[in-house]
# Entry
Amino acid sequence: MADPHFATRVRASFDKCAAVHTMGMRMTDVEAGRVTLEMRHHPLLTQQHGFLHAGVVSTALDTACGFAASTLMPREAGVLTIEFKVNLMQPARGPDFFVEGVVTKAGRNITFTEGRAYERGGEAGERLIATMTATMMTVAGREGIKH
Amino acid sequence: MADPHFATRVRASFDKCAAVHTMGMRMTDVEAGRVTLEMRHHPLLTQQHGFLHAGVVSTALDTACGFAASTLMPREAGVLTIEFKVNLMQPARGPDFFVEGVVTKAGRNITFTEGRAYERGGEAGERLIATMTATMMTVAGREGIKH
Amino acid sequence: MADPHFATRVRASFDKCAAVHTMGMRMTDVEAGRVTLEMRHHPLLTQQHGFLHAGVVSTALDTACGFAASTLMPREAGVLTIEFKVNLMQPARGPDFFVEGVVTKAGRNITFTEGRAYERGGEAGERLIATMTATMMTVAGREGIKH
Amino acid sequence: MADPHFATRVRASFDKCAAVHTMGMRMTDVEAGRVTLEMRHHPLLTQQHGFLHAGVVSTALDTACGFAASTLMPREAGVLTIEFKVNLMQPARGPDFFVEGVVTKAGRNITFTEGRAYERGGEAGERLIATMTATMMTVAGREGIKH
# Structure
């Protein structure tokens, strides 16, 4: 059953997600089937050439995709990432990043999502730096976290 | 031309990679075509259920794979991740993690790699928690960082 | 340099691609950065439950994505798939299939593409059955086919 | 419950899979968690440069991975591919191909697999031409085929 209070639930869950706060991510939009995040370039999150680490970009994309899936899940369900793939189009210079996750197909057990990450505010203007496709699994509360 | 001093070069490059130090990763083995990392579970790097965030696991895998590719590249070359895919078999409880990246095929422009992440030291003993396949690109110094 | 005659070149190359004809695929639109294909369900191309085999759906998606990349390449260049990932949302019942490949970022060496496959004409109407992200490599004629 | 007659069941299911016979694939080994296939290069299955089409290589890999997962499933269950990713290391010249699928982690609902495709019998000897990671879903008979 759809959860009418999904936005409150998803924002509360995001608040408990320590890694994304450590990396300075903020949740902006929470709609049915769509979540957006924002973050900034930070020298503590770079790879050896000074760009945002691909793993950090992936963390943001996975988070947006996972919570987008969660908006369509029942109240008591948890969401787990089964797999994701990232394509990295551009080195992530920033200074600002905008990340969007959307559901492409929601199922009872499996939800398919797509994410896009953009950089903003730099010389090149807004541009697509990475895309993700991610598969999410609905985890019922009583089953615990098991594939 | 192969670089006889690849281990020194790769370790120096890892030292400049801020994100992996922020996440507490240490480089252990550096062999031709193979790099290993270790890290520990940390409350600042978790998702909402208390497991290590999939994005952090991916950061470690991408790092091991990228530097494994780098060991086989010329001295002056840089390495960029074009894409990777992660499969997540188990929630990452830890408390210890061991991550390995190996080259499956090295080419002049494109190098294919695979990674595996294991947790250790917990009740379940050592077990495979995630795998990665990643495609790396050799970037010549004079070209700058461009796909 | 962009090739003003890309459509003629791409259609001629598609004609030389035996596998897609064996599977009954037809190329419909050929635009700069976008190619579409059509095909029908066929009993010789099914998996054990009678749906179109995921490998056949992938062949169509890879073909649409590869030729979409080719439209933006120089006249003498060849295109090779480095990797692709497919997400399979629905069993492929058909009876008709429509497949679209688009370029998300074209580079000198590497081009990123996305594909979508839809079924049509059945009880469920038009619906998305699969998506692809694929990375294509430009291969210069004089270098031969080498990664 | 594990199925002691998995090999008979898997071979019977392979026999009903029309696409793989159209492409000339033969199932060789069927062990618990591992399946191998063989096929030959054929001019009707090539792309525009005369190599085996990446989609055909993917069909073989997906088939090996799917049936490898099936060996560990209950007797009445079906297997569906949720997603796969292929990395293509070498153009597929053949003339012979050997494909192996293995289970990396079997779960009640979700099974993770890996595949490798090799060419044999040509000038370059045996070499790895492609790898796959694929996620398979167990489908109970009474539920029908639904994600």
Notes: The CA atoms of residues 59 and 128 of chain B lie 16 Å apart. The first strand of chain B starts at residue 26 and ends at 31. Chain B touches chain A at residues 13-14, 16-20, 22, 43-49, 51-56, 58-60, 62-63, 78, 80-91, 145, 147 (CB under 8 Å).
